[in-house]
TrEMBL record:
VOC domain span: 6-133
One GO process term, biological-process aspect: L-methylmalonyl-CoA metabolic process
InterPro entries: Glyas_Bleomycin-R_OHBP_Dase (IPR029068), MMCE/EMCE_epimerase (IPR051785), VOC_core (IPR037523)
Record's keyword terms, sorted: Lyase, Metal-binding
Keyword check for Lyase: yes
Protein name: Putative lactoylglutathione lyase
An example molecular function term from Gene Ontology annotations: methylmalonyl-CoA epimerase activity
Gene3D superfamilies: 2,3-Dihydroxybiphenyl 1,2-Dioxygenase, domain 1
Provenance organism: Parabacteroides distasonis (strain ATCC 8503 / DSM 20701 / CIP 104284 / JCM 5825 / NCTC 11152)
Length: 139
């Protein structure tokens, strides 16, 4: 099952969506509207450019957001890598067997048209996000 995972996007922890997005827009990326995700307590913005990786900007709404810890420790930086899977429950089970720790169980994500997402951590990889198909971003 895991061999069918495909790259979806890179997530960046940012303090200001507007300031970071402006840099990407100057490089030819198209910017989505900003969407609030109540589960992560973040504002999310998508940046898309043909033949380039999709970028997700995540800005915490307040100190309860898990993104805050990353910003405090690392500043603006990559936060996670996301992969598309056909069966999120099966993929989570497979990754747990490989010593990944479930950070958040599958939940609907408003920024990806309510497709299910889950976050897992491995000390040799870092934080990954899984998104279940269809994985169309909200633009």
């Amino acid at each position: 099952m895991l061999d069918s995972m495909t790259f979806h996007h890179i997530g960046l922890a940012v303090r200001s969506i507007d300031l970071t997005a402006a840099i990407y827009v100057n490089a030819g990326y198209k910017q989505s509207v900003t969407i609030f995700d109540p589960v992560q307590n973040v504002n999310i913005c998508w940046l898309i450019k043909e033949n380039m990786p999709t970028v997700e900007l995540l800005a915490p709404v307040d100190e309860t957001s898990p993104v805050c810890k990353s910003l405090e420790k690392n500043g603006v930086s990559p936060y996670h890598t996301c992969y598309v899977v056909n069966d999120i429950e099966g993929a989570v089970a497979d990754l747990r067997k490989m010593k990944y720790i479930v950070v958040s169980k599958p939940v609907e994500a408003p920024a990806i048209h309510n497709s299910k997402v889950a976050f897992l951590y491995n000390k040799n990889i870092g934080l990954i996000e899984l998104v279940e198909e269809p994985a169309e971003v909200t633009f």
